[in-house]
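Problem 12. The chain below contains 335 residues. Write out its predicted structure in token notation.
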Amino acid sequence: MKGAELIRWGRMLFERRLITGWGGNISCRLGKNRLLITGQHAPLGFLTPKDLVEIDLDGKPVDTKRQPSSETPMHLAIYRGTDARAIVHAHPPLVLTFSLAHESFVPLSFEEKYTIGEVPIVSHETPTVTDPAEVVEELRLRPIVILRGHGSVATGKDLQDAFLLTDLLEEAVHCRLVRDQGAGNAVAAAPRAPEKRAAKAAHADGAGHALFSRAHMQALIDSANADPDFQRQSKEGDLTTTLTLRMDGQDAAVTPWTVHFAGGAITRLEAADDGEFSIGGGREWWEAVFRGRLDPFLATQQGKLRLERGEMWKLSKWFKPFQRAFALWQTIPIR
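Solution.
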């Protein structure tokens, strides 16, 4: 059954021109201790059962007469370091081209922002990924990354998930390139937003507030209330609600905070867990959000953060002011 799935999605990758020739490789889990991966020099568009190799978690083939893909070490590292059930490594031509001149990809549409978020571009200097540590680190936070001058790597609960992410990224890059071409390439060369640069600088020396401490929360409120864009977007969207932020797991003892929004400002902060909306998650994911490495909407879409109270469609109508608030909050240093 799994073999038929690899054959099917390999063909789809070829038909969508997300790979050509003998490029790309795909794999999926076979229970706890086995993986199924395409073999060396296997043409994904024309796979047969003999092109598929079952391996253990050390990369050793069950049938020693078959050799797995040269990217097997990368696949193994991703399975060890993430909760991936399937991996698609493809060579989408527009993604590859875009990667040569950019540091990351920022999507245009709301669907793309919710589904893939900002996609980092990882550099490497070898034909295969011989040092997958950075790829794994990024895939812990998001479902897809770009390899500079090489292609993309997507993970999912199954091969369909990983395929759809790969296809969506290529189309999203296509839209971005069309937009940039129409703007005379002026937008393509635009620097990262000031908040992004500020966030990176703020966290560089490791100093800052303890995560979710009162001082941290007060700094978040002060930054939002001092920002004209947040005030304007909040008033335009009639942002009137309460939002609880909570850390769970081993950090369950950390105080949950409820933030009150009204009249274009944050009007009150209280140590309580009674907001109209409540978002919870572990320290790892909150740190990634507040350090600017993970978009909070994407984190919630992926299940790393959980919307535990309230409805996403209602929260989404205030997307702009909340997105602005988190962009500001990511500039507040934490330790």
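Discussion. DSSP finds 13 helices and 13 strands in the chain. Students who got a different answer should revisit the alignment rule from Section 12.3.
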